[in-house]
Amino acid sequence: MYIIKDIENKEIIDGIAKLEIEFFKKEAYSKESLEEMILSDSYILIVDNFEKINGYLLVHDSFDVFEIMKIAVIEKSREKGIGKDLINYFLNIKKENLFLEVREGNIKAIKFYEKIGFNQVGKRKKYYCDGETAILMMLERN
What is the pLDDT of residues 68-80, one digit of tens each? Predict the structure, then answer.
């Protein structure tokens, strides 16, 4: 696992930008937005590998809590523990509570987060651009 704190390695940024479009379609961050986030002190980007990115985690520091903004693992590498490893890597460097939003219909993701220790703490109705509700989840650390 590696924390990316600069944009000198364009291949990593390009790779993540492509994966963003593949995974998140309309909700994908642009390459420019990713670059701004990486350069900001309020975001942490963790990738599983420099050579070939199989997964990444983007977390936002909101002063008193951290929020997972994006987590993604490529299709052929899923169910191999990469997503869990990314989150655990983050949890080993930060001790604050961790929040996230997940689509209500994404049952597989909800179960994944619950296995790690997240609990459902609320909902945001019609949160996504297609009108789907977001489930708010928290991993309480303190």
Answer: 999 988 888 788 8
Could you give the CA distance from residue 63 to residue 43 in angstroms, rounded to a whole number? 11
Q: Residue 51 pLDDT more than 90?
A: no
* pTM reported for the whole predicted model: 0.87
Contact, 54 vs 77, CB < 8 A? Answer: yes
Contacts (Cβ under 8 Å, ≥6 apart) of 132: 103, 104, 105, 126
User: Residue 100, class by beta-carbon neighbours within 10 Å (0-12 exposed, 13-18 middle, 19+ buried)?
Assistant: buried
* Tokens coding 142: 């303190």
Contact 12, 53 (CB under 8 A): yes
φ, ψ for residue 70, nearest 5 deg: -150, 145
142 DSSP 8-state letter: -
